[in-house]
Amino acid sequence: MSLDKPYLDVPGTTIFDAEQSRRGYHLNQFCMSLMKAENRARFKANERAYLDEWPMTDEQKLAVLARDLNRCIQLGGNIYFLAKIGATDGKSFQQMAGSMTGMSEEEYRNMMISGGRSVEGNRYIGEQTGEKK
Amino acid sequence: MAHISASVYTSHVPAIGAALDMGKTQEPYWQPLFAGYEYSKQWMKDNKPDVIFLVFNDHATAFSLDMIPTFAIGTAAEFTPADEGWGPRPVPKVIGHPELASHIAQSVIQQDFDLTIVNKMDVDHGLTVPLSLMCGQPDAWPCPVIPFAVNVVQYPVPSGQRCYNLGKAIRKAIESFDDKLNVQIWGTGGMSHQLQGPRAGLINKEFDNAFLDELIADPGALAQKPHIDYVREAGSEGIELVMWLIARGAMDDAAGGPKAQLKHRFYHVPASNTAVGHLILENAK
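Output (structure tokens, whole complex):
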């Protein structure tokens, strides 16, 4: 019997469930390693070499190198783990979150100041024309 | 006998901690938020507890993907504020209450909630930001704190109903502790926010305010709200709000006692990516 996943039709959202967690285990553990200053220094010195120490897929490594957080999340990354990459890069959580929306940093910040993204039209995939997960 | 005198509910946004630590509280962006906690800081001074039982979630700090406990109680003598990648927050060490924590663990497990017992754990902004909001910037926190970490990172997180029932079990556990202790229980996290994907930045004021109304007036009904409603309406990280139901379930009225009294209510958008909500409820004296 298949698992109940009622959250698959929420647009622009990937729920970090057991399946994603399994897919992203090494990616997320790599991120976790960046909580140590010496690892951050080694990663910065040669990102590819540092990533090659981890049994991650090549797709995952390329997504990290490109700082493509949406792709990282698709491939099993979780935002709280991916935030360690942002911290290594000196980015705030708002800069990281904004980078996934296709908006500029300023546009995103202004959207938040004026009350955030409305839930109207953002509850189900397909509510808005051209909306794709 | 120990008893719960009050419950406190608040968001725990990391940027709030950073604003405090960097002396930005009077900047126009932050001033309205901190103004909402002025009452609360005075209330804390006037109603200083002996112990705070603080429900929060770890954000990939103490728990990596190596171990993901659903409910973890901190039984250590002290807990160090964590380095989350930006350096540790310059806040006091958190002093635990191992005797009460161990007592609660034993009692709650005997009530069929299988807690993970944690004797060593750094605590992240989920725990220290609520302390800063309620206590300001003291040299030492006003009392011992029992950290209680809930998994809201990997789905499925515990249901609202289970959290509410767990709160009831925690209340029973505290009331069976022999020492006379005044305990506050805090539920933290939320309110609406989404930190990931193209839908990042979602805020839902109507949902949040309805949640606050129902948490005050009819928490038993609120406990039945399914996960998907939080995700769809309050954002993928809005699911943290289930933790508020643990604190609410520990109030006297959840066990048929007199109705909890609302002392303070505050709501503000935004703090970074997040809607901030805050309540103080007292048990009838």
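Chain B has one domain: 3-282.
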